[in-house]
Design brief:
Blueprint (H helix, E strand, L loop, with lengths): L1 E4 L2 H14 L5 E5 L6 H11 L14 E5 L4 E6 L7 H5 L2 H4 L4 E5 L13 E7 L7 E7 L4 H10 L2
Parallel strand pairs: 2-5, 2-6, 4-5
Antiparallel strand pairs: 1-7, 3-4, 6-7
Helix pairs in contact: 1-2
């Protein structure tokens, strides 16, 4: 599925829609170059779960945990992972597939990821700096997310 957003607000809104549809153990794999909108999209997911006030980029912490009375969300930035063995050190395997997790730069650790959840590939539009071309693919366990998004974005 392809969705084009015209600005940060629309990218965040798409993240919100997906956040509302996430099950308790769904993984969201974000792919995109630097400054493509991965963190902006993630903010939308956090906002939909009532976690925006605690939200910050995990660029230097590698992984952040957000909790409230209703939800837990993990937000990971795999860009700085230099060796796959670091995933064990940061506790990745303890939370992966057991909690909602957003993984920015997922392509950096794809060899460790199962075919579950959704892949969100965000690209900058070449003509319009504010526009994003967002391709979303769901694995079998998350196909219902795509079906619901198609209803919303038809």
């Amino acid at each position: 599925m392809r969705i084009i957003t015209r600005n940060d607000m629309e990218t965040t809104s798409l993240g919100k829609e997906i956040g509302r549809l996430l099950k308790s153990n769904t993984s969201v794999y974000l792919i995109g170059e630097m400054a493509s909108g991965k963190t902006q999209f993630s903010k939308g997911i956090a906002e939909s779960l009532g976690l925006l006030d605690k939200f910050s980029s995990p660029t230097y912490t590698i992984i952040n945990e957000y909790r409230n009375d209703h939800d837990t969300l993990y937000h990971m930035d795999a860009y700085r992972i230099e060796d796959i063995s670091e995933l064990d050190y940061i506790g990745f395997y303890d939370i992966y597939k057991n909690e909602k997790i957003i993984i920015e730069w997922a392509d950096m650790i794809m060899s460790e990821l199962d075919e579950t959840g959704i892949i969100v590939d965000i690209k900058k539009d070449e003509q319009d700096f504010n526009k994003r071309v967002i391709d979303i693919k769901a694995f079998d366990d998350s196909v219902d997310i795509i079906k619901k998004l198609e209803e919303i974005y038809e």
